[in-house]
Fold this protein.
Amino acid sequence: MSYFKEFGGQFVPEILMPALDELEKAYKKIRRDKRFWVELNYYLKHYAGRPTPLYFARRLSDKYKARIYLKREDLLHTGAHKINNTIGQILLAKKMGKTRIIAETGAGQHGVATATAAALFGLQCVVYMGEEDMERQKPNVRRMEILGTRVIPVLSGSKTLKDAINESLRDWITNLRTTYYLLGSVVGPHPYPLIVRNFQKIIGEETKKQIKSIEKRMPHYILACVGGGSNSVGIFYPFIGSRVKLIGIQAAGFGLSTGKHAAALLKGRIGYLHGSKTFVLQDQWGQVQTTHSISAGLDYPGVGPEHAFWKKSGKVFYDSIKDNEALDAVFETAQMEGIIPALESAHAIAYLKKLKPKKGSIVVINLSGRGDKDLETIIKELDKEK
Amino acid sequence: MKHFLAYIPAGYPDLKTTERILLELKNVPITGVEIGVPFSDPVADGPVIQKAYTQALKKKINLKLIFQMLERLDLPYDLYLMSYLNPILNYGEGLSKLKVHLKKAKVKGLILPDLPLVEINNIQLQYPVVLFVAPNTTFKEIPLINKIRPPFVYYIARYGVTGTRNDLAYMDHVIKLRNRIKSPLYVGFGISTPAHVKKVWSSADGVIVGSALVKEMDKVKPAQMPKAVVKKIQNLLNR
């Protein structure tokens, strides 16, 4: 099945179909292959640092009169959940005999995680990154280069993440025999949304075990930010259909009514982007819109098709947080817990103020990445306020 | 008779020029024109067509304006509309009016580069759609193609996006597919020389030329573009 009910599919040029079929076949094989999972788990544990802690945030809990837990994906190697997926897919690429890895990146987190995994397994790696993003995220560009990856600036379209995905697809169409396209989120044509979800669902599986052992019960709420949607799908998936209230938080940028945001699930129409039928921010004529968010990782006009399905079926509730609210949450978390969260994850933490959890309720927040990469953005915003 | 399909991006550099090109094309013996609808995210296209689309979109070109232009014209050749799915299925005047507007514009069929065979039945368009085949298409796809009976079948003659060079290495495969497909088979992608056209015509029913024409447009001022396109086509037809 290539669909999540009506969402998903494979809306790509015919010439890509055999590559998607090949990928699906290879993935089906490793899914049942015990040795593959033993090898993956070895690297996740000894190299990436899994399992990540589920940390009881005492001072935040006191403030919000709830029991707040942070799932510490920020402690993983390279500083975000992205590495769960890149190690998994690199192992898959190796099984398929591919020698060249390509990837897109927005903020650079997926690019760094891909460059890292490619270096670890000695594979050639090329990362496409919008020229504008390269400017905004210089340290990550350097990190990738140090890791031996070639970063290619994307000059087409809006010169951001969506255009980097377009350019990766074009590269893949041209070089599909040697090349593995390592997509970084639960977007794109089938089977990517499925593969990435299944490599990320370990976040939710661990959370389930950990909260059971600490609290002896399931949480009341799980909060996660949603751009393309990989960290949120990862933590939500094992809880879908349970009583736990799952809340996905999108980037409201300057505000949902300003047109400068990245909330495809709240303001988008059903459309076709990057091979998938899903909610897309677009104008009256079906042209994909440029988005805005303070966090580059949420700055994307589409969203994973499984989220589209969860939204329409009501399995997950979606809301949004503005730039300035996310920024406040960075400081609150830093100064109350000694953790600087990524701007993406700060959207989920900021939602505590909107949620106003009932006294004593248990809230798990996916702290999907650490904030080091955002220091420059944060400092700039501080200077503006002065 | 062998077919020749010329691709023209709509609204590049403006809609007036597109109209003048279409009129000028009355003077060459081509059988069809493929009008490209600009899109923000053209994944199957190379830099030449991407640039044309970006520029057209800056001028606020949309599908309705394209239809209005086509309605006014009386052209001796077949018209096809090449568009990515999203501008079609999110047509600004409403999907219910799309079919009427396509008919009024005398569009013979749609060419949808991000609609592969496997998704063809998941889209409800009720309008003739051209199907794509590629060097990796197998015979098992053919019954479906023959059941749908598209106006023609578009053979993507190489791995890569539009505008990339082509050594026409897949002509044996073209012949094999042509023998089994009931609709006419046209070959496109990277066709840029008279030798290419000749070679394609010896194995297929038609040839599609796109980026090579847009490149000629790029060399001259807008006023000269119609003549530049015609000159290139004459050159390609000059056997």
Notes: The mean pLDDT of chain B is 95. Strands of chain B lie at 3-9, 32-36, 78-82, 107-111, 129-133, 153-156, 185-188, 206-209.
